[in-house]
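Support case: user asked for a sample of complex input and structure output to validate their parser. Sending the pair below.
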Amino acid sequence: MVVTQVPIGRVTRCSTRGFVGAVRLPEPDIPAFGGFCVVETQHGQARVIGLIYDLSIEDDELARQMASAGDLSREQLADAQTNRQVPLEFSALTVGFAREGTYHYTLPPQPPLTLAEVYPLDVNEVHSFTERFDFLPLIFGADRLPVDDLLAAALKQASLTYPEKQRLPYLVQAGRECARFMAADLNRLENLIRSLQT
Amino acid sequence: MTDASDLDSYFGERQGETPLGTVVGGSLSAGLRVKLDPHLSIERLAVGRYVVIQGQSRRTFFGIITDILLDAANPDLPRRPPDPSDSFSAEVYRGSVAYGAMQVTPMLVLDEGAQEPRPIKTIPAHFSRVHEATAADVERVFGREDQSHFFIGSPLDMELVQVNLDLGRFVARSSGVFGKSGTGKSFITRTILAGIVKSGLASSLVFDMHNDYGWAVKGEGQHQYKGLRQLFPDGRVNVVTLDEETSRARGSKIDRILKIGYEQIEPEDVEMLAGLMGLSDIQTGALYYLRRRLGPAWIAKLLEEEQAGEELQELVLSGRILPGTLDAIQRKFESFFRRMGFLVPGKGDEAVDDIFNRLNLGTSIVLEFGRYGNTLAAYVLVANYLTRRIHARYVDRMNRHAGGQADEPRPLMIVIEEAHKFLDPQIAGHTIFGNIARELRKYNVTLLIVDQRPSGIDDEVMSQIGTRVTCLLDNEADIRAVFSGVSGAGALREVLARLDTRQQALIMGHAVPMPVVVRTRDYDQSFYSAIGVVDGEERKARAKRGAETLFGD
Amino acid sequence: MSLRFPQLLTQIEGLGESAARRAAEAARKLPVALRSIDEAQRIGRDELTNRIRRAGERWRGAHPTDEPVNVVFGLPPHPSRLNVIGADGSQILPDRHAPALYFLINIGSILIEQGTGSAPRTASEAGVFYDDADLYGDSGDLASPAWINGKRDVAEMETLARLAESCSGAPTLALLDNGLLLWLALQAGDQHRKAVDRLLAEYLQHLTRLRASGVAVAGLVDRPRSADVLALLALVLAPEPDPESSPAISPYRGLTDRALFAERLEPGQRSARFVDSSPVNRDFETVGHQIQFFYLNTGGAHNIARVEIPGWVAEDPKRLEWVHAGIIEQSKTTGGFPYPLVRAHELAVVTAADRQAFEAMIEQSLIRRGLRPRISQKAQTKRWTGARRRHRV
């Protein structure tokens, strides 16, 4: 893998179905909910593709203290917003893996190793990975996750890899694929459609 | 927020390459349920179109779309559709939770490597892909035009594909052309007849009620079309007229005038008219008695053209017939026979033999009724009269042929209009036409019945109709009648009810491999040329060219 | 669980009882100490100095300075512009069970240009030491934690000096999260004297750089436990202590200077300056860096910090003002501890995860060189038995 991007963190714990990474990053570099990320496994033979479904900022007493003090100096505010690294834990759901140039929309044979570097998935790869909607079942299969919001965020991100004119048709197609899973629950489907549009 | 035209252009592009849908259920008897591909706009479909289904075992199934419907995966959806202004939601729902479906009646199957499609005995497996049939697919089903296969029209939306009637099969059993009035029945019939004449597979005897077949046919407005006599000026078609005056006035070429002598008429001929003449059962029964007692001149005697007062008096006095009955018969005969100019006193001539001979020589005959065409009774009388006698000669000839004493008579197809008058359930059991329909081709005589009210035709007769060419029908009973005895017919009803009023017909039965909705071929110059007619102008031009070639400069 | 609590119950009870007794005792002694601070002033600096001398070489406590011992100084004005530098360090000590032998020092630093509104400059600078010379020194023993701490202290001071030299144009205050006296030098016995002396010399040299660059420097001891001023006050009660008796037997045993000044100082106020009497201060004094200290209420009810400054800051009223006003200003939002030191600590700290990541990288590096990293069985055992969270989705 040619690494041209800055890693967003390292894996701290993982299972076949997903992984958790930790990192301290300045605010502008924090990964986003619904973002695709990738991490190597099996000594680089395969790359696990994940979808970030949770970001949690770890306990930060200083920030809490300063927030309650109220009377912040301008320098301290600037420091907090540009310099201070936010201690962050992100959780990603495995939505497939890549091996020998092919995407597999199933769980990988092995999870990534602890401390493996997690990278954001390159825009071109997001495009080609999401051309097929076969990654949806793994998202729908994850219980206890904010599945609908995650879907909307991921699909909108994927649509942005298309030229302006093709985005809407892509989202329509995506909505139809989701509707197959949600046909029994029109409320859920309506909500998803609404989030896809906004 | 959705720009509908964007979506259209997007989905439009993919239209061509995607299948219509996949088979999701159904049965051989009820037809297949096909879920439409979400990319497909349901509005582009039409009942009556063909589809090709790729089976799992490399068989190709041909079917016809018989119904189109909207369905939803969630039964709640119809109760809470997306907001009308939200085209994005609508677009998502369409093809997912809400989808289109169609009913397909499978008709034929083509085994791998086989050339000829066979009637279907099974159905394609679940989730087989359904494609719109291409011109090549349809062409393979309907074969090529040749001596015995006649180009009758094109499937809807496939102008370049020919549907060819298998004329051999068409004439082998009785056939029918149905449709309410004004739907072009006689145009189609004439087209088919032209094909049959051209093929030489059978002779036709056409009882032409309204001058639709022989010469200078009137169409819509002032337009005139060529009759069969004009299409085949070489003698393959003869015009026989009952009304010389009218025929001549129309400029029709006449090959013979038909007169029927009173003495040639039998009570059986009159019996058919009982309803039309208002003869009661007793009066009808009396006819046979009168014929026996009065002899061959019975009609002349009843009309008192011959001296018969005493004879009649005797009959009454003998108590064999009531005076009222006799009076009624005489009165009704008086008003009928006097008006029919083609009925002449005396023994008449050998017209029946002449017509039989012509038919047997391969000449088709159009019997023009002229002004008598407006009198149903005249039509029924003559059709019945001729058919009974010609049929009898066919029976005789066939019997002798079986005994090796004669050649097989040339197959004959008798064309009658207003067929329900001859074949209604009350009388079909014992009329000549009922017999012909039932005996199939035993004596080489079949019917082509042209009718606008098939429900008036006896069921048993209908069930014997091999090929049915049906234009638009809107009466439920008529539609039901047309499909009687056709398996899987229910599905085709929707197709039939939605035909255009002009130039469209559903053809099913013996002469086509599967039911087909055609736009019938135009009856115009190109048709004339295809039949082999050389127009006057054209002929002159050819002659001139020939002369120039011959003599040079 | 390996602690068997039922067995310990009696001892826990005893511990609590004894702590309560000590607290009560200290509370009883506190008013006496408070009164004696005024008494000390009445006795005068010369008499106090005499009594200190008479207490002998082993006496440890606070020497009075030119400021009266009982005086309290209010908060001076804060300069409109003040650069505040903070530095702090942390380390990974060498571990015989680790895949490779090394130690690491990480220094976090921050430079705040107070009054400009611009974002502070922050840095984390780490050094890895793995050469034999670093690991074993002259003696051949593996570097001790104390020595590595000393090395870290030197690095912290070096960072302050470097940053101070980069500042110009405005008054500058350099803060250290520690006392200024090099702790290693306080502790060291004679075995490694030479190595320690080398570190001390370096340390003092950086202090000299700081003095030369015109900045104020201060070391901040949060929650100090020292009782130096109380030792001086003990001389007020007992003018002639027995030089033979242990200094631990103080009348104020159990009390701290912090408790004392918590009573005396309002938020923002500082105590008088004193001079630290530890022997190492003589080494500092020799090169002009005699360390003095005062107590400062940095805000809140009982937030007393001990602030250590070199003599050249103590005796320059301007620089002393920067120290006093600067620390108070920087402690406003952080609950009594200066913001730059909080941040420097944050930038310096090496978390367990960082350490794991670092060691994983070392392993990779070893593998690339064909070495098979072997984690000792003991470390492996710890890994197995240590608490691990299981990842769940």
